[in-house]
Amino acid sequence: MKYDIAIIGGGPAGLMAAVRSAELGASVVLLEKNVCLGNKLLLTGGGRCNLTANIQDPRVFANRLGPKAKFLLSALHKFGVKETLDFFQSRGLAIQVEDNNRVFPASNKATDVLAIFTKALKKYQVEVRTSSAVKKIVNQGKKIIKIVLADNQEIVADNFILTTGGQSYPQTGSSGDGYKWLKQSGHSLIEPKPSLTPILVEANFLKDLEGLSLSEAKLNLYQNNKKISSISGDVVFTGTGLSGPAALDLSRVIDPQAIKTLTVEIDFLPQLDALALDKKLQQALTAGAKQIKNNLSGLVSPKFRNVLFKLSQINPEKKSSLISREERLTLVKLLKNFKLKLKALAGFERAMITSGGVALTEIDARTMRSKIISNLYIGGELLDLDGPTGGFNLQICWTSGYVAGESAVENK
Ligand SMILES: Cc1cc2nc3c(=O)[nH]c(=O)nc-3n(C[C@H](O)[C@H](O)[C@H](O)COP(=O)(O)OP(=O)(O)OC[C@H]3O[C@@H](n4cnc5c(N)ncnc54)[C@H](O)[C@@H]3O)c2cc1C
């Protein structure tokens, strides 16, 4: 049988492409190498699925993606955040908007997002073939003529949509297969790198801070003492470094090659400048308790207090009234400029996304069609486009998948 459209990869981008193209009447086969669809989708948002960011103006949304944002603008005008919310809500998914515009299903279940797709795939009679790993794509000139599965079955279609994702969390199935095929067919690849990853740092007190979570801290990134980036948000100390949304977002601007020249300074209390913090410390030290360890509880958590005393070399048993101005200023410095030398970025195993991918100059932004292979469309994380935490990366998948699905139907 010859299909109108064959889609390789049953993640968010492939699912959306399949539903849209089949809804328009195309005969569609969706090929997924895992035994089930959407493995990574089910992990998103800690199993709750932060499915988009509620920023409905395409320009404002695109601006948050960084320098390559322009690429997505036309597609966002066709199927942006508003249309995505309509898509899910009209199919029965109740949503809730949380802080920083993050959108989740009201049920807090990523499985409910996947269920919307499985229902729609059935309704529009998409042929879903799980446990079907594609091993080869066969081109003739500027066209794909067929694909070959691991068991040597061949799939023939008029148009093909490639949505095999990046290389991060490879256990979910995203093992970078698409990159290889794209290169073979003459596309340029921007080197795939782990992104939105925990940041590993050099410090001998990390175990003491493991699990400490800071809300609305500020991370300042320095290269050779020059500030190069700054991000505010929630941060979590892991046994090896920093994670949490602000640290993950900061990892996007970190060049792993230059990592040894970089330091991060944490501002634990960005709402107070150094002067105001010193005043607050003075007040805390004169209030009630006698030993300094009992006077800081309003300002810092017990976990961090111990490290603070260690690094400042202030004896926690010391009477607050005996703390010198110099000691106080040391505490202020540690709280405002807590310096950590960077060691590495966690690798693909722990990266939420892969940056890099197929060069955007080789993709028609209005259709997601390859400019090199005339019956190939590309969507999702395979594209050299990514965003910060907060639902932006799934929106890239919904938008590019929808547009790829619709355009492939129109390509006769
Ligand atoms: C832990 C975690 C949490 C995340 N949380 C969020 C979040 O809350 N919000 C957000 O916006 N983003 C989040 N992301 C990012 C988001 O999940 C990805 O950007 C998104 O899944 C990419 O979708 P995709 O369809 O491009 O690729 P993928 O989801 O990677 O899907 C690709 C599919 O292709 C299949 N495949 C690969 N090779 C072959 C082959 N040879 N043959 C057949 N099938 C193949 C794979 O098995 C896979 O199912 C998170 C990522 C992780 C890892």
Give a structural overview.
The protein has two domains: 2-194 and 352-410, 3-Layer(bba) Sandwich (FAD/NAD(P)-binding domain); 198-346, Helicase, Ruva Protein, domain 3 (Orthogonal Bundle). It contains 13 helices and 20 strands. Strand 1 (2-8), helix 1 (12-23) and strand 2 form a beta-alpha-beta unit. Helix 4 (70-78) crosses helix 13 and helix 10 (274-286) crosses helix 12 (325-336). The chain is of the alpha+beta class and 412 residues long. It has helices at 12-23, 39-43, 58-63, 70-78, 81-90, 110-123, 177-184, 206-209, 245-251, 274-286, 302-312, 325-336, 392-410; strands at 2-8, 28-31, 52-53, 95-97, 102-105, 127-129, 134-140, 143-149, 154-162, 189-195, 199-202, 213-223, 226-237, 241-243, 262-267, 338-345, 353-358, 363-364, 369-370, 376-378. It is elongated. The mean pLDDT is 96. It binds flavin-adenine dinucleotide. Residues 8-14, 31-34, 39-41, 43-45, 49-50, 133-134, 163-165, 168-169, 173-175, 177, 352-353, 380-381, 391-394, 397 line the site of flavin-adenine dinucleotide (FAD).
Blueprint of the fold:
Blueprint: E1 2-8, H1 12-23, E2 28-31, H2 39-43, E3 52-53, H3 58-63, H4 70-78, H5 81-90, E4 95-97, E5 102-105, H6 110-123, E6 127-129, E7 134-140, E8 143-149, E9 154-162, H7 177-184, E10 189-195, E11 199-202, H8 206-209, E12 213-223, E13 226-237, E14 241-243, H9 245-251, E15 262-267, H10 274-286, H11 302-312, H12 325-336, E16 338-345, E17 353-358, E18 363-364, E19 369-370, E20 376-378, H13 392-410
Parallel strand pairs: 1-2, 1-9, 2-6, 9-20
Antiparallel strand pairs: 3-5, 4-5, 7-8, 8-9, 10-17, 11-14, 11-16, 12-13, 12-15, 13-14, 15-16, 18-19
Helix pairs in contact: 1-13, 4-13, 10-12
The chain binds flavin-adenine dinucleotide (FAD).
